Task: structure prediction
Amino acid sequence: MILFAFLLAVSTAAIVDVVEEPPCPSCVLVNTTCYNISHLLELDAPFRKRIVIHKIDLQRSKDVLYFSFEPTFEDEEYYKIGFVDLEHPDEHGIISGTQILNFGTFDIDQANNLIYFGGSDGIFILDNNLKTFSAYSSRGDTITNVFYKNQLYFTRYEDKGIIVKKGDYFQTILEDWPIRKFLVVEKENVNYVIFLSNLGLFVSKGNTVHRISKNAYFRGLTMDLDGNVYAWWLDGIYKVMLSKNVAYSTLVRVAKLPTIGAMAFDNNNNILFTSDKSLFIMKQTEHNNCGVVKPAKPRY
Ligand SMILES: *[C@@H]1O[C@H](CO)[C@@H](O)[C@H](O)[C@H]1NC(C)=O
Ligand SMILES: *[C@@H]1O[C@H](CO)[C@@H](O)[C@H](O)[C@H]1NC(C)=O
Result:
């Protein structure tokens, strides 16, 4: 019996010795998966002293990253949009018109290569196939979010609800709710709207609205290639656990990472994120000694 215990102890130690890899200081656990973070490039734009990037997203067919940022104080505009080709980072630039447009938000119709921009004079559209840039809708209105999913959804400054553009006609959903940020996700032919209001983060399906967090200050919402929705804040990345019965939906912190400005997923479902003006990529790795940044204690 004593011998048996001894052997067990030795073999356990041996297994640990063989399998444990040296710590990977650039790795971080996202739930149970280890991701390795590496620096991709520095975004080049006339940033303000304190760098603010509100949103990043990838035009998937061209691997071009778009980002909305606050330009230098001297600039006449208080928001602008820049872009960089991730395969040829020398190809980068800033979207600019001949007038003051203050584009602070955008979204991409990936299938048709159309990019919608929202700002202080309505919604504009860039057709990347035809290389044309034109006014699209709602001239005169200040647009605070645009989102594309089969149709265009947007929000207006100091207005409640989300406006859905259906051809020439508009419908407002969630009309009692002030909306800071939102996105729409489709699961089994049902649309769910995940939105941030001044009372926290909510999930909705039809008229049912359910709060999953009281934190009203998430910096953004994004979706991976599998339709999972994530939010991030100054203490890490959160995943929306969407349930068919929305009242059972929850929010779970999956990674502890303090420096995320904006976040999106690339064509391989790697995480892209900014920290100041640096763009990083987080890729899954098999490494089993996952860094110094330990995962958050699960809340569930
Ligand atoms: C975390 O990973 C476990 C095991 O793979 C899985 O069952 C669970 O649903 C995951 N949690 C989240 C929040 O993704
Ligand atoms: C993490 O990525 C860096 C390159 O940025 C690489 O040198 C390192 O080997 C990677 N580590 C793991 C564990 O994959």
